[in-house]
């Protein structure tokens, strides 16, 4: 079984700007927000036990199916009418779904002088929730607003253009190698892989932490890592 080494200094990034401040951009699902409640609502809507939905999602995930494909297959299996992947009431989240380490980590990063941003594959409604967080957010967007989804290069180009920061001064934090980490590195950004959530587990179980990738288990580790 792969093991996680201690977090290493950032890889694939150039020297920090004066003062060491960065623009830190966060993914949303399973990075800032736990999607557990979403999956429970999906299970209830499809009249399936939560364990069945979780196990089926894990199997589909291991076969590299995307989120919408997993929901479509579950819908076909349950024979419940409707398209759950198009239901905002099922897929939305609230501030109560934030992981416990989010607000303390973001507050510490802001106190350390970093700029903070949030942008993931989310509907525009997600911005309404995230805009109310009791912490500094310097830039907020979503795939719906950008009209492109990760790992589309246009998504990462938009981050660079709209934040006004050079790629070398941006760090993207996310839970997926394929959607978050590798595309960010390909665009000259720094990247930190957060090991939580099912996609992260599936990718970690297959290969561990790839060489040159900086990984953390909790956002609580992030301020110290960026200060190193």
TrEMBL record:
**From the Swiss-Prot or TrEMBL record, what is one GO molecular function term?**
hydrolase activity
Gene3D superfamilies for the chain: HAD superfamily/HAD-like (3.40.50.1000)
Pfam families hit by this protein: Hydrolase (PF00702)
For biological process, the GO terms are: small molecule metabolic process
Name any cofactors this protein relies on: Mg(2+)
Q: Which InterPro entries match?
A: HAD-like_hydrolase (IPR051400), HAD-like_sf (IPR036412), HAD-SF_hydro_IA (IPR006439), HAD_sf (IPR023214)
Organism domain of life:
Bacteria
Q: Which UniProt keywords apply?
A: Hydrolase, Magnesium
TM segment ranges:
none
Q: Report which residue ranges the record marks as coiled coil.
A: none
Tell me if Nucleotide-binding is a UniProt keyword of this record.
no
Name the UniProt record assigns to this protein: Haloacid dehalogenase
Q: What does the record give as the organism's lineage?
A: Bacteria, Pseudomonadati, Pseudomonadota, Alphaproteobacteria, Rhodospirillales
